[in-house]
Design goal:
Elements: H1 3-19, H2 29-40, H3 53-56, H4 62-65, H5 68-90, E1 93-94, E2 97-98, H6 101-108, H7 115-120, E3 136-138, E4 142-143, E5 150-156, E6 174-180, E7 185-186, E8 189-191, H8 193-199, H9 204-220, H10 227-230, E9 238-243, H11 269-286, E10 293-298, H12 304-307, E11 318-319, H13 322-327
Parallel strand pairs: 10-11
Antiparallel strand pairs: 1-2, 3-8, 4-7, 5-6, 9-10
Helix pairs in contact: 1-5, 2-5
Amino acid sequence: MNEADAVENFVAAKLRWLSKRDEKGLLSGDKKAALARLRRSVGKEAVSVPEIWQYVYEDIPDILAGDASKALYAQSAVHIALTLYAMHSQGHTKNGADIDKAKAKKALSQKEHSAEIALFGRMVADDPALNADASAQVAHSISVHKVDNEYDFYTAVDDVKARSEEAEDAGAGMLGTIEFNSSTLYRYATVFVNLLYDELANDADVTAKAVSEFARGFITSMPTGKQNTFANRTPAHAVLVTIREDQPVNLIGAFEKPIGFSDKNEGFARPATKRLGKYASDVYASFAEPPVKSYILMLSDVADEFINQKNQDGSPCKKVNLNQLLEI
């Protein structure tokens, strides 16, 4: 057997093992796990992914094992072949059984999406007909004032460590810094309720529930990164909710000029809230119709800037708490 035949047989043997099914035509658990691991290794060198070494490196023929360059060539060939097969099988099998693409497409094209897909959309590059438009838009959070980054210097040490100064491993396990800042943020999101209603199969109850849960999540959720380090469990200072029949209005323009330090020791949140209310009134007077309904949730006593605003029917912006808002 020459070297080319040895490589071909080596690749073929690996593919036969990976594609072999039981008497019911299903793949075993170890084969499914192998396919998942191989898919994760796409675009990487096999040597950098230890979880696939058993599929790529084991049982290499003796005629190839004695030469490092030939062995590497054979292992690369196996890796490429197995990852291509793994990617191909992902779109054609589920639990080892063939998928009926026509039925799958029909199911995905139904206007009965989950609330998550209806809110945030879905893109299928291979078939745009299966795309779902997102009804929610979420802006990046932005500070309402000037921010200077700070640095948290930390050390990581072992619980049990040699006390001797002569010990080779004396000292900290590692040193490092984490960049962070503390700021008062303006956040904005909007939901196109009519589109959401359409994407949820015209179910008014489900649509109302989806909007309510989106509002709850947006108002109460916290960033999950570095929670144990910074414990950023700070509730919102003020939340303005408006219901509009025209286009959404983002009030970020209120902070085109950053909030500065106040001689009245008001901090940033209170003057930012007052400015937001004033800017909203100016926008409604000059560029946009007032909202159909509006609601304000606040921790401070500056609600007048919002309560004095009038909705289209002349009613004022209503001050509510979170539970009252979610029941509307």
